[in-house]
Amino acid sequence: MAGRPSDAEVIEEVEAHARRRGVAGGPTGPGAEAPVWQVLLDFRIVRSIETRGERAMREPGSRDDIAKRPTYTAIGSHPVPAPTDPEEAGARLLVREGSLTEEQCADCHGGTNKCEACRGRGTRDCVRFVDCPLCEGGPDACWECEGTGRSRSRRPPHLRAGASAADRAARVRCARCRVPDVACPKCRGRRQLDCPACHKSGQVECAACSGGKRVTHQECRGTGRFTVWTEGWIHHNPHRARERRLGRLDLRRPTGNLGRWHETVLRRTTDKLPADLDESDEALLTPLLTPRKNEVARRATLRLLPLAHVRVHADPHRDYFAFPTHTGIKVITRPTTERFRHFAAIATASALLVALVAVLAVTSLR
Ligand SMILES: [Zn+2]
Ligand SMILES: [Zn+2]
Ligand SMILES: [Zn+2]
Ligand SMILES: [Zn+2]
Ligand SMILES: [Zn+2]
């Protein structure tokens, strides 16, 4: 494939790298084997999928803005440009030619209706008097006449049973029986007070209409009319798919940053994958490129990075990887996977041992 250095160039670079690492080897040098090539692959595709439809609209009031929208005659065939960037989601709202009209609200008169709460009076009935909150409108209103004006008890008022000294001291002259120091200080023996809400008038302003007798019709928002039209909508939404083969986990960071990925961008459904792509990769990616229903735009990006795996005789516990970069061939080394697993196993075993020792220590303390 394009941009792949020759095996001889790779071997030379790997051996130079090994020497810098202090791997001398025999008289013929570190002894790099023939490179085994693999290709890292990072493919993504974003398609713009278009959906269309229409719906009946009815909104309160006069909607001047609706008349400014573009019109259509048949939503299915109405031409709209595909989005230049398939990543962009977008919605178009259109008005079917000749469908826009206004109608009167059938459930009100000019946006208002008679207030139901007060039946259009603007006021509501109210009690003129309320019970005194202090004596609760009961016989305690006056110890002499119980609020009737006719003396009943014939007892010396200050000896009223159960009354505290403070209670007795607060008593006032009764407005009904005129006896001093016996009546409730709040109502003065009358049991009731003038209603604070209506000031004894028996009428209060209706809270529902604030006295206005009519209320706003909510459905038409007080406008008395509706704007009616048929709306057509065309949506564009991005749909994404991805396929990646990024090699060993411990390789990803340096190759991702440093490697000279070979990039191909396909924008039309007729655009072809690179001719030098491996057959297996072509088989992997071809289904992802099949045009989808209602696809109107796409951008597929294929990035490839050839990577050579080289074993070095004089350094058997490390894998050497070489890949092209913008400045030449980059070589990195990693512990061999066997070696890697070996150390991972040791680490796991150590961790288990530590845990076991801890458990034993705890058990022996108990
Ligand atoms: Zn209405
Ligand atoms: Zn009294
Ligand atoms: Zn009272
Ligand atoms: Zn009242
Ligand atoms: Zn009212």
Structural description of this entry:
With 366 residues, the protein is α+β, with helices and mostly antiparallel strands. Among the domains are: 7-46 and 261-336, no CATH class; 337-366. 19% of the residues lie in helices and 31% in strands. It has helices spanning 7-20, 64-67, 165-170, 252-258, 279-289, 337-365; strands spanning 36-60, 71-72, 90-96, 101-104, 112-114, 123-125, 129-131, 192-194, 203-205, 214-216, 225-245, 262-266, 295-311, 318-325, 328-335. Strands 1, 2, 3, 4, 11, 12, 13, 14 and 15 form a nine-stranded mixed sheet that branches. The longest helix has 29 residues, at 337-365. It starts with 6 loop residues before the first helix and ends with a helix. It binds zinc ion (5 copies).
Percent helix, as a range, is 10-25%
What ligands can be seen in this structure?
Answer: zinc ion
**Biggest sheet overview:** 9 strands, mixed
Low-confidence stretches: none
Spatial extent as radius of gyration? 46 Å
Mean pLDDT: 87
Query: What would you call the shape?
Result: elongated
